[in-house]
Write a structure and sequence with these properties.
With 349 residues, the protein is α+β, with helices and mostly antiparallel strands. Helix content is 30%, strand content 25%. Strand 10 and strand 11 form a beta hairpin. Helix 3 packs across helix 6. Bound molecules: flavin-adenine dinucleotide (FAD).
Length: 349
């Protein structure tokens, strides 16, 4: 590959793409004024969750097979780039009628799961509120967002990727213009700006990406392992960096303000599920997901010459990062981008 590519955006998608390009000898320059992790990718819980997203997120429910195939890329991708994965799976508990709804969605999607009695759930998640039965899935993996971002950046950097702390503000087909006035010559511009706006003049297709704000909280002193615990309107994600509870889905909101009342409601719901969290100290954060009308990302070339989009991954950006990065590599090499090309086509709206 004798190509030079500028990537706008250093989240999961931009960095995964940079890591793949750099390993294959493509000259890659990644531009992002934000610090590593100061974006949706850094705030995310890091669940790679085809099964539980199918059970809990109506917009994901029809996509189990696609999400599971995206998940299948992760173990080899993680090994190559030094991303640490957790294979403990996930448990979902709740009232019997709610559990039946989740079970029906999983069954319809063909997603494997096991039913759990309250005793079995308590055996898998010590400290869980008594009397809650549910489901278990071994389909779902997880990573630690900041570890993964640092690993991808290191992997790309070790193979020659260059990083510039500036925003891309323009593209004339041969050069990317940065907000500090620099111009970077390239064959292609990959726009991996998540839910971020500002490059619509380059790619009007970006205007179909709408924001969904997410607030999330982390108890840095609560170090547990085991499966992710899901309940109605809440997930509790163990992590060596401190347990994470999330997350809101605030359609149309593009700010990153933390609302203490919203966070209190989130942590109260988590504490009802896991009473041991009573009194835990939580740090809150917020970030913005980009989403399209059909819940699928925009990945591929657009009308503007040399521009490729990789945006709008909604609440599955970590899960989808390797498959999106592989598709971008195929587009840059003029190869077949695979079975998702039409479903993710940025010109479909
Ligand atoms: C609270 C929350 C929890 C989540 N949990 C999960 C989860 O468990 N699993 C999962 O798979 N997904 C999860 N997600 C979704 C996931 O975080 C996103 O889908 C994913 O991070 C998108 O990655 P990205 O690289 O496309 O965008 P981002 O991470 O948003 O990165 C985009 C980057 O582009 C930069 N940028 C913007 N404009 C420009 C420009 N003009 N030039 C240069 N750079 C620019 C920004 O500074 C930013 O760093 C969660 C999201 C939130 C908010």
């Amino acid at each position: 590959m004798d190509q030079r590519v500028v990537i706008a955006g250093g989240g999961a998608v931009g960095l995964a793409t940079a890591a793949i390009f750099a390993r294959h000898g493509v000259k890659v320059v990644l531009c992002d004024a934000a610090a590593l992790g100061d974006n949706a990718s850094g705030v995310a819980a890091g669940m790679l969750a085809p099964a539980m997203e199918t059970a809990f997120d109506v917009a994901s429910a029809g996509h189990f097979r696609m999400l599971a195939e995206a998940r299948d890329l992760w173990p080899a991708f993680a090994q190559v780039h030094g991303v640490e994965l957790d294979f403990s799976g996930a448990v979902a508990v709740g009232a019997p009628d709610v559990v039946e709804t989740w079970a029906a969605r999983l069954t319809e999607a063909g997603a494997p799961f096991e039913r759990l009695t309250a005793e079995e759930a308590a055996g898998l998640v010590p400290g869980i509120a008594p009397g809650l039965g549910g489901l278990r899935s071994r389909e779902d993996l997880r990573l630690r967002s900041l570890q993964a971002l640092a690993a991808l950046r290191d992997s790309a950097g070790a193979h020659g990727a260059e990083f510039i702390a500036a925003q891309v503000v323009g593209w004339d087909g041969r050069e990317a213009l940065l907000d500090d006035g620099r111009k970077i010559a390239a064959d292609k511009l990959v726009i991996a700006t998540g839910g971020g706006h500002g490059l619509e003049a380059v790619a009007p297709e970006l205007s179909t990406v709408l924001p969904i704000k997410g607030q999330i909280a982390q108890a840095r002193d609560v170090i547990v392992d085991g499966p992710v615990l899901r309940g109605e309107g809440i997930y509790i994600c163990p992590s060596p960096d401190g347990l994470i509870v999330g997350a809101t889905m605030e359609q149309g909101r593009a700010d990153r303000d933390v609302d203490p009342e919203v966070i209190d409601a989130l942590t109260a719901r988590a504490t009802r599920l896991l009473p041991a969290l009573d009194g835990a100290k939580f740090e809150a954060s917020a970030a913005v997901r980009g989403a399209t009308a059909d819940g699928l990302p925009l990945v591929g070339p657009v009308v503007a010459p040399g521009v490729i989009l990789a945006v709008g991954a909604r609440r599955n950006g970590w899960l989808l990062a390797p498959v999106i990065a592989n598709m971008i590599a195929a587009y840059v090499n003029n190869e077949d981008a695979g079975p998702l090309a039409a479903r993710f086509d940025p010109r479909r709206f």
